[in-house]
Amino acid sequence: MMRKKFEAGFKARVAIEALKGEKTINQLSSEYGVHPNQVSKWKLELQKGAAGIFSGKKDMEDAGHRELADKLYKSVGELKVENDWLKKKLSILG
Predict the structure, then answer these.
(1) Residue-level pLDDT at 53
(2) Per-residue 3-state assignment (H helix, E strand, C coil) for the chain
(3) Looking at residue 51, what is its pLDDT?
(4) What is the pLDDT of residue 57?
(5) Hey, what CATH class is 1-55 in?
(6) Where are the domains of the chain?
C-alpha cells in the first residue's frame, strides 16, 4: 500500500481549520479526504510548532541549512575540478 504525500501548505490549511474548531475532526477528515487521526496529528504539530515561528529558531535552522549548502557547493566544485583534471590526464595517456 502506497502512502499519500501531502504538501506542507495542505497540512497547514487542514491543521488551522482543526484549530478553529468550527468543524469536527471527522467533518474535516471527510472534507479533505484525510484520516481523522492524521488531522489530529497535524493539529497537534501546529500547536507544538507555533511558538517556534516567533522564537527565531527558524532563522537558526535557515543559517544551518545555508552553511551546509555552502559546504556542499564547495565540495561539488572541488570534485568537478578534480574530475576535469583527471579527464585531461586520461586523454593525454589515451
Answers:
(1) 76
(2) CCCCCCCHHHHHHHHHHHHHCCCCHHHHHHHHCCCHHHHHHHHHHHHHHHHHHHHCHHHHHHHHHHHHHHHHHHHHHHHHHHHHHHHHHHHHHC
(3) 80
(4) 63
(5) mainly alpha
(6) 1-55, 56-94
